[in-house]
């Protein structure tokens, strides 16, 4: 017997407006925060729609490397769209670059809005006081450089063991995003930008094959 492909039929229009979406690769219906929306351009090319604003019926995929590989190998985007769709061979790498840029942009915006700060002592003080700087707003997540000292990172995370940690970028990349010469530790206050950063970091981890079920789409802040 031939294996049955997952149902990649898009959700009805009324369901598409809600919080759930169907993955074109697995057929699973799940919260959209852990998924990536695609649109098809007029000339038939698959276009990532990370901001979820492009017109037309979206094609949704779990932010997961095996799901992406399956969708590409079995032409599931075309099946879901019911038309020929051109999929770039380097789609995975493109998505990672786009999500990296989104994460760093959100971090930079948070810093400029006074909702994020960096520095070992400043971050530790924020965690001890349960507020970011003098905002009065509790921290939502930590950002730690992947190449930072494990000893120092441990001393920071020990102050807030339940706080989500993003450790996808090295210190030079974080410094550039935060407008500093050097950055290993940063903290982001609760709010819209923290939610955006957490969501995109979760999706990026999934595409890199690093996410667990608890990581992907974590944005309840």
From TrEMBL:
Q: Which domain of life does this protein belong to?
A: Bacteria
Annotated InterPro entries: Ribosomal_eL30-like_sf (IPR029064), YlxR (IPR037465), YlxR-like_sf (IPR035931), YlxR_dom (IPR007393)
Annotated ranges, domain YlxR: 21-96
Full protein name: RNA-binding protein
Q: Which organism is it from?
A: Azospirillum thermophilum
